[in-house]
Each structure stands twice: as structure tokens, then as C-alpha cells.
Write a structure and sequence with these properties.
The complex is a heterodimer of chains A (352) and B (169).
Chain A: H1 2-6, E1 24-33, H2 46-59, E2 70-74, H3 80-88, H4 94-98, E3 104-108, E4 113-117, E5 123-130, H5 134-151, E6 156-157, E7 161-162, E8 174-181, H6 183-187, H7 191-200, E9 203-206, E10 219-224, H8 232-278, H9 284-299, H10 307-316, H11 319-326, H12 332-351
Antiparallel strand pairs in A: 1-5, 1-8, 2-3, 3-4, 4-5, 6-7, 8-10, 9-10
Chain B: E1 12-16, E2 23-27, H1 29-44, H2 49-71, H3 81-87, H4 95-98, H5 100-111, H6 129-146, H7 150-166
Antiparallel strand pairs in B: 1-2
Classes of the chains: A alpha+beta (352), B mainly alpha (169).
Chain lengths: 352, 169
């Protein structure tokens, strides 16, 4: 099955390649789209949901249009573990995993784009790219949107733009976001201040898994708040302009830590490495926290660890990934033991 | 939507008809009361009990208007304005048209804009009214089948097929 092939892979957004990849993790754009002839998903009958689902499923047969082979997964026919697995990989939202009725996701083999069907809107098209490259991400998602538009009828209003179930997404229906790794700003307690100034210019800050999620592993997503009254290019520019400033802040905080407390920082990184190499049982939260310290240490030249492996571990030590690797359901205690032994193995292979 | 002066929800939407352009206000009950009292003061210079009573009446009227508005339903998907206010999600694309006057200030509040300037889908100029009508027809066909009115269901099915064919591709 397609999902099993993904288990050992790191996912496009955690590849850790591309410009400024020590701080910028990934660039992501999503478009909310609805078909004009159906109610929005919350008001859909089961028949409506199935009709939407099968209409979009037909697109997949026109595979000449897709640059890569695409896979199609019915979320409603999947077990909880597989759903959670897709959430952890950021290919589907928690909302899609937990809702009811016919719903699915279309994913390309590189995990560079996905289309959620029957989430809050009929279609949620998403494109992701490793590192900072929003313009390329926009060109790619725009082409996918054009293709879908040539096959289906979108709900559109001349003044309000693309119509969405929630008025907060109306207009372009577009959310542009960049994920950043900001451990030094967290350590120097400057993050709050930076985020407050971002809010003033209508940019939102979220944790690793979007709205309401904690900022696990010091990963933060910065995105546009407003979707109407600005063109797609303007929205991309708005986020694009602020990223170099954020990178600059994080670099200054890193320099400050190196200058003022190099020994403490180095100690922290080495201890994190020591725990991950030797723990017998460890939670997902603690793992993320320690991996974040090591990632900072690697980027500052304080420790030598293979960066692609480190990036992969952020994903593979999460609950569903761990269980998929073991090949079955595990309770929390067993997961923590398996996680510790998987980490130990990974770090020791790296040492040799 | 929040009150313009505090964090409470705005339940009073007042349109001031001035000489130039109408001014829209979105206020909670408390601030609506204060606003209407003040408006009264500037008119008469002296606040009168009669004036205050008159304003109180206006507030009750506004509440009545809101109750009336809450009952309004979209002819296509059937969602009421009350349901939208409480869930925060619209029922179908047509809601943006049938509740346009109410949604307009909400959208302007969220986005500080009311006009889309980005990408347009193909056929954006033709409009999507005919296809949106399918929402109503599909709802009616389900209802017809439920009450076993197969004759009506069959007529509706033909109508649906007609629209689907006409605008396909």
C-alpha cells in the first residue's frame, strides 16, 4: 500500500534542503475551493459528499496532466493509525482525519502536493516545498488549480472572489505559510516580542501542526491572516518580505548565545545528544525538544550529527510513525520504549 | 463580529443616514445604548426622559429586527441566518448573495476589504447561478423521495440532468 512506502521516507517539508534551510524548514501554500453546485461540506448530505468525492476522483484518471504519479486514499475507509500517520506528515488536517462521511486525499509520490476532499471546503489544495521558495510553490499550485478548474465548476462571486464555507478564507482562498526553526529566539525569550509585531502587520503565527497546536520542537509557521483584497502575488510577497527579517532575528539570537554563553549552549546540545543516545523510555514531546537542541547545535558547528537523519527523526519518532514502523498498535508506555530504542539505534549508526 | 468599542459580540448593526454617506456601526447592547443616548443629546441639547424612552424603544426594535433576520433562510441550502451566526460557517455559495447585506460588513471587518483582486476561474464572467440552482433541486429530490412522491422526483431528475448537460465540461 502507498502509505507503507512513505514510512521510511522523510517527507518533502522536512528534507532540510533549499535556501536558508538551517532556519527555514518549508514553504507551503493552500487554496480553499468549492464546487458551485453543492452546499458547503457541513451542509452536505451523504449523497452530496459521495458525489463530490467521485467527481474529484475522476481527475486522477487524467494522469497525463499530473507531472508525478498520484495516489488516492479514502480517509473514511482507513483505520485511525493511518489517518494519524497522514496528519503527522502534514498531508491531511486533523479536521479531515476526524470528520464523517466520504472524504479523501490525493497525494503525489514526492509529497509535494496534496488535495483534501470534503474537509471544511470541498477542495483544499496544498503545495509544499523544502526551504524558502514561495514563488515556485505558487507557480506549482497555480498550475494544479488551473487544471482542476478546467474540469470542475468553482463557486465564485465577482466581488467576493472564491467562495468558502468560512468568510475568513473568502477571496483568494489562499494561505501562504513558511515554517521556521527558531530555537535561539525561544531560548533568549524574544519570540513573544517578534510575534506581537507580526500580528500588527496581519500575519499569524502557529505551531507545528497549525491552529491551536503547541510549538513542538521550536517549529513555527508564519502565514497571512487576510485572504481578500490582495492578489495571490501580493500575499506571497507579504509573507516573503518578513522571512528575511525573522532569519536575521534568529541569527542574531544564535550569535548572542554563542558569544555570551557558548559553554552552556554546548553543554545543552551534548546533554540532549546523550539522553537521546541512552534513554530507555522517552516521550514524543521530550524527543522533539531534545532534537531541536541538537539541530541548533549542528547548525552552529557545536556537534556533528547527520542533518538529514535528524530532520527525519522529528517525524519518525511521532506516535503514528513509530507504530507504522513496528507494524501495529502500541500503548503509550510501549511507544516510549520503542522510541528510545529507535533513537539509540539511529544515533549510534550515525556515530560509526 | 465584535463590537467596535469592546470585546463583546456586536448584536446591534446601526446605519446612520447622514447627508453624505451612510455610516455603519456594529455595537454590543451596552455600547448601542450609550451611542443612541448620545445621539439623542446632540439633537436636543438636553437629555429628556421621553428621548431616552424613545431610544429604548429603538433598541427593542433592533432586537426584533435581529430576531426576524435570524429566521431568514437561504432558498437553496436552507441554512438560517441564526445557524450561520452560531456556527460561523455558511451553508452554500448562494448564501453570499442572499445574505449579502449582512455578510458584507462581516467580511469588511475580517479583511479590511470587500473586493477580490486576485485570480479568477475560467467562465467567471458567465456566472454560476444556473449550476448553483442544482443545490435546491437536489435537496428537493431527496425530500420528494422521502415522501415517496416519485412523479415529482422524476421531473426533478430530468431538470437536474438538463442543467448538468447544458453546462458540462
Amino acid at each position: 500500500m502507498f502509505l507503507d512506502e512513505l514510512v521510511g521516507k522523510g517527507g518533502e517539508w522536512l528534507k532540510g534542503t533549499g535556501p536558508e534551510s538551517d532556519i527555514v524548514i518549508s514553504s507551503r501554500i493552500r487554496l480553499a475551493r468549492n464546487l458551485c453546485e453543492f452546499p458547503f461540506v457541513r451542509k452536505c448530505s451523504d449523497t452530496d459528499k459521495s458525489a463530490i468525492e467521485s467527481r474529484v476522483a475522476e481527475l486522477i484518471n487524467q494522469d497525463s496532466k499530473w507531472s508525478d504519479p498520484v495516489s488516492y486514499c479514502r480517509i473514511d475507509e482507513m483505520n485511525d493509525l493511518d489517518r494519524q500517520f497522514l496528519v503527522e506528515r502534514q498531508l491531511i488536517s486533523r479536521e479531515l482525519a476526524e470528520s464523517n462521511g466520504a472524504r479523501s486525499v490525493l497525494i503525489d509520490s514526492d509529497e509535494k502536493f496534496s488535495v483534501m476532499i470534503n474537509e471544511e471546503d470541498h477542495l483544499r489544495i496544498q503545495a509544499v516545498q523544502s526551504g524558502l521558495d514561495l514563488t515556485e510553490t505558487w507557480h506549482r499550485i497555480n498550475a494544479i488549480d488551473d487544471f482542476v478548474d478546467s474540469c470542475l465548476h468553482y463557486a465564485f462571486h465577482p466581488r467576493f472572489g472564491y467562495l468558502t464555507a468560512c468568510p475568513t478564507n473568502v477571496g483568494t482562498g489562499m494561505r501562504v505559510s513558511v515554517m521556521l526553526h527558531l530555537p535561539a529566539l525561544v531560548m533568549t525569550r524574544e519570540l513573544e516580542k517578534v510575534f506581537r509585531s507580526l500580528q500588527k502587520i496581519n500575519l499569524a503565527v502557529r505551531g507545528l501542526y497549525g491552529e491551536g497546536s503547541e510549538a513542538m520542537g521550536d517549529f513555527y509557521q508564519i502565514s497571512n491572516q487576510i485572504t481578500l483584497g490582495k492578489s495571490e502575488i501580493e500575499l506571497v510577497q507579504q509573507v516573503n518580505e518578513v522571512i528575511p527579517v525573522m532569519i536575521e532575528y534568529e541569527r542574531k539570537a544564535r550569535d548572542f548565545l554563542l558569544r555570551e554563553s557558548r559553554d552552556e549552549l554546548s553543554d545543552r546540545v551534548s546533554r540532549a545528544h546523550g539522553i537521546l543516545q541512552n534513554a530507555k523510555t522517552i516521550s514524543s514531546e521530550e524527543t522533539m525538544h531534545l532534537l531541536s537542541s541538537i539541530r541548533l547545535g549542528v547548525n552552529l558547528g557545536l556537534i556533528e550529527v547527520d542533518l538529514p537523519m535528524l530532520n527525519r527523526l522529528f517525524l519518525q519518532t511521532q506516535p503514528a510513525h513509530l507504530q507504522k514502523m513496528v507494524g501495529g498498535k502500541l500503548d503509550i508506555a510501549d511507544r516510549n520504549v520503542h522510541r528510545a530504542s529507535y533513537l539509540k539505534k539511529s544515533f549510534n549508526i550515525d556515530d560509526n | 463580529m465584535k463590537c467596535q468599542h469592546c470585546e463583546k459580540p456586536a448584536t446591534f448593526h446601526i446605519t446612520e443616514l447622514t447627508d453624505e454617506v451612510p455610516e455603519e456601526l456594529h455595537l454590543c447592547e451596552e455600547h448601542a445604548r450609550t451611542y443612541l443616548m448620545q445621539a439623542d443629546v446632540t439633537e436636543d441639547d438636553v437629555p429628556s426622559i421621553a428621548g431616552a424612552l424613545a431610544q429604548h424603544l429603538k433598541i427593542n426594535e433592533a432586537a426584533e429586527q435581529l430576531a426576524k433576520l435570524d429566521e431568514q433562510a437561504c432558498p437553496l441550502c436552507g441554512i438560517t441566518f441564526y445557524e450561520f451566526r452560531h456556527v460561523g460557517r455558511l451553508g452554500c455559495p448562494h448564501d453570499y448573495i442572499c445574505f449579502e447585506d449582512e455578510i458584507d460588513p462581516i467580511i469588511s471587518n475580517i479583511h479590511s476589504a470587500t473586493t477580490h483582486v486576485g485570480k479568477k476561474p475560467r467562465g467567471a464572467a458567465e456566472g454560476t447561478d444556473k449550476r448553483t440552482e442544482l443545490i435546491r433541486l437536489r435537496r428537493e429530490i431527496e425530500q420528494a423521495i422521502q415522501v415517496e412522491d416519485y412523479e415529482k422526483a422524476s421531473l426533478l431528475r430530468d431538470q437536474i440532468a438538463g442543467i448538468e448537460e447544458e453546462h458540462s465540461g
